[in-house]
Amino acid sequence: MLDIRGMDRPTLWRAGVLQALLVAAAALVLGAALDRSFFVHWGWLAGPGTWALCALAVARVLRLPALRVLVGAAISGVPSLITVLLGAHWAGAPLAIALFALWCGRLAAREDDPVPAVA
Question: Over the stretch 43-71, which tens digit does the pLDDT of each residue have?
Fold first, then answer.
């Protein structure tokens, strides 16, 4: 069972919803603007690039450290990568978004913790 007591729950929810909305909006815009052949040839770059840019936007809006959010985005994106390789492109997205939200919630909780004094 997942223990979310050490998380900043508002940040968790905001990060998840915002990442989902940004990724969905980017997918709709890119899908409408570009033909299928672009994604066949460049999807390996467009997908992770879009995921990372959306994560950076989340970091900016929620005032989280960008580099740490990018690390979390990379780790949480692994389930999507696995499902893409298995031929079920969007199947991993909900899990990836949930993992990203958990990462951001934990990251925000750590950022709020006071730095322990050096003895």
Answer: 878 889 999 999 999 999 999 999 999 99
**H or E segment at 32?**
helix 9-33
How far is it between the farthest Cα atoms of the chain? Answer: 61
- Cα–Cα dist 23/104, whole Å: 16
Question: Strands, DSSP E only, in 40-101?
Answer: none
Q: Could you write out the DSSP letters of every residue in 35-100?
A: -HHHHHHHHHHHHHHHHHHHHHHHHHHHT--HHHHHHHHHHHTHHHHHHHHTT-TTTTHHHHHHHH
Per-domain boundaries in the chain: 9-109
pTM of this structure? 0.85
